[in-house]
Amino acid sequence: MISILVTCLAREIWQLTNEAAMGIGRTFLLVSRARFNHVVAMKQLVGVFGRLMILGYGLSVGAAAEKEWTPLFNGKDLSGWQPKIAGFPLGENAHHTFRVEDGILKVSYADYPAFGKKFGHLYTDQSYSHFVLRLEYRFEGQKMADAPSYVNFNSGVMFHSQSAKSMTLHQTFPVSLEFQFLADEGKGPRATGNVCTPGTHIEMDGKRVTQHIVESSAPTFAPGEWIKVEMEVHGHEQIIHRVNGKEVLRYQHPVLDPDCKISPAKVLLAEGARAKLGSGHIALQAEGHGVWFRNIEIKELPVTATTP
């Protein structure tokens, strides 16, 4: 009798133990599945955050790239610039030559009784060496009657220029390089985007070039047309001219010319300036013909950038 009871009790204990084990197994399985689902969800969440971070980084880089361009002209006034007009002291904007109207920086001769060789330039306060400068220009009206014939539809932007402060009272052009702006006179091709070299020389294809003007491959444009120009400047190493997005001229290794008849660099060299020209101010030209400028922007380049 006792043996029968023991046997029954043993069966009961075995059954209960088996059911408990199965329950624990089911519980473990559910927990395992929950943990697995949790891990999968976490991985998916990390993946989403990762993609968002990459996207955010890309957007921030793109935004930073857009912010690399800095306006040199605020569209309101001449802040950041100073005029120097031949025959007038530094800072005197004689006859309101440089003026801002409707967000455009204008060279105007409306208040001039006569031109009288009052060549002028509007200089940046800051000096630059490695940069890309872009702007738009167009000519307006007719040249001053007593201005030289060559200034007809003629202007430009100077760079690697001596400072306005170093200009003498009656000096007409700064020692510099000029990205020349020209327009159609109705006399045949007249390319814009040339380089002029007052007080300087340049190099092309490994050879020194001493002529004052080197023509570009740009087409001829109508006087009233807005033209987009860009110069890419790598210090002393290389300069590239572009017109409406197309390269039209490339040259290298500008140097000071002490014997130039237009703007001799003797004084600058005597004062310790380096013969190798690799930096300077930017200046907009007022040469006797009305011209408008807008969207003047600069992007500074690393000094260590490899010359293309």
Description of the molecule:
The structure is a single chain. This protein is α+β, with helices and mostly antiparallel strands and 308 residues long. It folds into two domains: 67 residues; 231 residues, Sandwich (Jelly Rolls). The chain has two helices and 17 strands. A hairpin with a 2-residue loop joins strand 14 and strand 15.
User: C-alpha Rg, in Å?
Assistant: 36 Å
* CATH architectural arrangement of the largest domain: Sandwich
What is the makeup of the main sheet?
A: 10 strands, antiparallel
**What would CATH call the class of the largest domain?**
Mainly Beta
| Cα-to-Cα separation, first versus last residue | 106 Å
What's the gist of this structure?
The protein has 308 residues and is α+β, with helices and mostly antiparallel strands.
Question: What are the key terms here?
Answer:
disordered N terminus; alpha+beta; 308 residues; Jelly Rolls; 2 helices; ten-stranded antiparallel beta sheet; globular; 23% helix; seven-stranded antiparallel beta sheet; 2 domains
Could you give the topology of this structure?
Elements: H1 2-67, E1 70-71, E2 81-85, E3 98-101, E4 104-107, E5 120-128, E6 130-139, E7 154-161, E8 177-182, E9 195-196, E10 200-204, E11 207-209, E12 213-214, E13 227-234, E14 238-243, E15 246-256, H2 266-270, E16 280-286, E17 291-300
